[in-house]
Amino acid sequence: MGGGGGKVQVQGGRVHAIRQGVRTLPGMNRNTPLVPRLAGPWRHLVSPPALERHASPRAQAVDFTLLQADDARWHLVACVRGTSAPGSGRLTYRWSSDDLIGAPWTAMGIFRESDPTMGHEPHHLQAPFCVSDGGRWWMFCNSRGAHCLTGANGIDFAWTRNRAGSWTFFDMGRDLQILDNRQVDGLWYAYYTDPGAADPLRHQHTVSCRTCPTLDGVWSPPVDVGVLGGAPRDPLYDFCEAESPFVIRRDGWYYRFQHLDVFASRSPTDWTGAVCTVLAPGRRRLLAPEIVVDGERTWIAAYGYDDGLNGIYIAPLAWC
């Protein structure tokens, strides 16, 4: 995702610092994985917004992306579900702030709604995430496949086609996340929730992965990288562990956040080991985490909408 400087963008597919000290470099590999742990309490960032259209008391801010744009302000773009729009009622909304945790977040309004002329499902735009590459910002989302907005400054975006001229970059289920692994093998990795698996334990859901040397190129056929941890923790939400996959690379290891359960592997596609750590034992209350590096501090952000939670939260993260 580029080198040098102190700009902050997406780690493993969401937010990370470009500065090289945060990234895996030759000679930094470890024999054993680090173990992440929460280093402080969760803080509330934003609540479900008062929408300027499609307002509903049932609206929830769910899967999101965080980025520090070229104006040095932080931007948070989230899927909002439960709106009064027809169909699934999902759209994306944006907030911004001068500081990740020290200043109020300002509601900026609806960011994008789906556009059927571009192959989107009507009123269904889901799970944005943003990366920066080649002097451009790339914000992916799903709506009948993977679609992408690009922009030059991290603020202004427009829908873009891939190199083949299609609005749809590749077929997929939902909740897409991208890992920049080019330093290792020259490839980007796209992980996403795939509802096409023959897995009765998880309501036929799994996690699939595609690769490509360029974000706008021809992506590989999908590989099933599975769901980890045995039987579902919550039988009433049996496909939870297949949702919102998130993978980062650090010191020669890949860390997969299956919500707040963390697994470690030497390979970005071979996930067979036991859980590395569980950041929140018991019933799942915070979901779809992202790792945010701001200067010398690392944070984990996630959303919650039950048990008194309502919005997007952030907590300091340490690696031991």
Helix count equals 1
Biggest beta sheet summary: 5 strands, antiparallel
Coarse shape: globular
Strand count: 23
Termini separation: 25 Å
N-to-C order of helices and strands: EEEEEEEEEEEEEHEEEEEEEEEE
**Beta-strand proportion:** 35-45%
Rg (CA only): 18 Å
Which spans have pLDDT < 50 for at least 5 consecutive residues? Answer: 1-27
Report the structural category.
Answer: mainly beta
- Helix amount: under 10%
Mean pLDDT: 88
How would you describe this protein?
- The protein is mostly beta strands.
- The chain has a domain at about 10-20 and about 45-185 and about 210-225 and about 280-320.
- It has one helix at about 180-185; strands at about 10, 15, 35-40, 45, 60-70, 75-80, 90-95, 105-110, 125-135, 135-140, 145-150, 160, 175-180, 185-195, 205-210, 225, 245-250, 255-260, 260-265, 275-280, 285-295, 295-305, 310-320.
- Strands 3, 4, 21, 22 and 23 form a five-stranded antiparallel sheet that branches. A four-stranded antiparallel sheet has the order 5-6-7-8, with no helix packed on it. It has a four-stranded antiparallel sheet with strand order 9-10-11-12, with no helix packed on it.
- A hairpin with a 6-residue loop joins strand 22 and strand 23.
- It is globular and about 50 Å long.
- The two termini are about 25 Å apart.
